[in-house]
Amino acid sequence: MSTSALQPEIDDDLHDDDTRLGTEAETMPPIPDDLDLDDPSLYLNRELTWLAFNRRVLHEAEDPRTPLLERVKFLAIVSNNLDEFFMKRIGGLKQQIAAGVHTPSLDGRTPLQQLKECQAAARGFQTQQQCIYDVLMKELAGQDIRITHHDRLPSDARERLREHFRANIFPMLTPLAMDPAHPFPFISNLALNLLVTLRFPGGLEVYMARVKVPVSKDVSKRLIPVDGSHTYVTLEDLMVNNLDMLFPGMEIVSCGLFRVTRNAIVEPDAEAANDLLEMIETELRERHFAPIVRLEVQPGMEPTHRGMLAAELGLNEDEDVFEVEGMMALRDLFELAGIDKPELHDKPHRPVDHPLLANDRRNIFHIIRENGPILLQHPYQPFSTTVERFLRTAAEDPKVLAIKMTLYRTSAGAILDSLIEAARNGKQVAVLVELKARFDEAANIGWARRLEAEGIHVNYGVMGLKTHSKLIFIVRRDYAQLRRYYHIGTGNYHAGTAKLYTDLGMLGCDEDIGQDLTELFNYLTGYSPPPSYRKILAAPYNLKRGIVDKINREIEQHKRTGDGLIQMKMNALEDADITRALYKASRAGVQVDLIIRDTCRFRPGLPGISEKARVVSIVGRFLEHGRIIYFRNEGNEEYYIGSADMMSRNLDSRVEVHAPVENPELRQELRLILDVQFADTRSAWDMDADGNYTQRIPEDDSTKGAQETLIGVAEKRLAAAAKHKEKKVRSKLLSHFQWRLRDRNLT
Prior knowledge:
The protein is α/β, with parallel strands linked by helices. Helix content is 38%, strand content 19%. A hairpin with a 2-residue loop joins strand 16 and strand 17.
């Protein structure tokens, strides 16, 4: 699942006629005339720009052009993202403050300043969420979908729910008393809890107990249907209205809902652990007990109870306690978003097969060898008939001798099954499983142990580095020689996210890239890295240096030709060296065009510095995740795709790979993607010099966004391939969007 100095009163900005979302405009200092490229005023804040991205996502929940249940889904996504923001970013800032760190970030803010601005922004964000929630509930009621209060139901419905509670919920509840004989209980991360105060009939002394709301797949969903309809009550509401079962004979004085968020950044002692697997398991255990960074409570909770909770949880009541109007933990609205009412959802998307693979059932290695590299575009093309087919064929093909692969995030299914089948078929299989993939550590430990049990060589990467690259490497005996085949991707080997994220992949057998990947895997499973690579750019070794060198080369060429052009599409631009180099290029007159999904430190439109540069963000039904880097290079164009964003962590402390795309037809496909997104007038947002975003407004409501356009492009290409006219169609589409871009630039 984004600003710089987000102000709480930003709620009003969302309703401006030009659909403008504020970021740093209120607090950005003026740009001095004699500015140097190290001045903090040039750089937007990483945490706040990430929050601003989520405001753009939240706008999808408000936009009436988005189908109603999709709007509910976006509201749930934003709530889930905000939870992660507190776990990772607020947690990290609190750790820095506790450690006495006062060093300012690139944008000149200390950790304490960032924390205060982020908390203020989050409060405004939360208010905005609740307003949109109220609007959506009214619109859902018009479609006979409701979340209602238990006491508004007829008596017979309440009785049926009480019986459901008695049979299915009550046995799982464990009230925990809080008094001198019962210490304050452990509170799980992101769990909902009831704080109940009660007394004996006629008594004066008040007692206190905590009851966990057991939302889980094994016990109960958050939303309980009433009589099989689309009317729901929340699980906590059902519990509150049946507390007499839990505390028979007691008088319920008050009951309040609360929820805590724990820090997800736990760094165990690497030297104390015997191996990386043990260290990650220790981290997971410690995360369970990690410090709390946020307390959410219902409005109206007794002040003494609220203060007691804050004190027991080690929080500052004024800064760390958030009152939540209405429904808490809106991420549970995913349950509502899944209702089967097609008219309230996006039109179903069915990926279409890649034109080269659709009707050719030959061995996929023969197709790659004879036709050259193949560019894959997910989710427009299926994961199953491309990547999974590639790996499945490798597992079954008797000429395949070895398979090597990196796994950052994956899921049960075809990928793991193919690796296991390959090992059973006697092939050498080596898999690098990244155990430190945030929030997927437990799953990856499970996958690693399963693969090891099948005799697969499992490696956990290089100490001190996360392996974030997306690589499959195949060694096959072709005729009398060994040939190396590969898949290089921008997204994880996860069948689920391949349907929800836009990603790119390249299947090929280029000899130089194959040699580069041989040396890279030898490093990942062995020791010293090679001094250089032939074609790939790999972090942390030559990726950042290579990108900066290419930016500087574009500057020098622009001095001669006057037509320098750099275009980058990625999730985030945070690294100081890359940002500084792009400013230098823009200042020299090179056209800098950026498609950045969320975090972006670069400020376009600064007079004399980046006045011609553009920053565009695309927000649509799929999460933009693909990465493309382009340099005009005096007409000898260069395109790269790969796994790395331009963030310091990716470039300096991860193993990442970007590979060149050299085939002219594949370059046409990448050019089409870039042109379609730059020409988008439905789902594109333009950043201004202060970090504010304005959504582009199309001339009419029937205009399609970039993602819907690319769905149509995939369908047209497949249809044209059947008539052997795919190249012609691709060329016509490319010309069409280049003309649209020219028209837009002229206006």
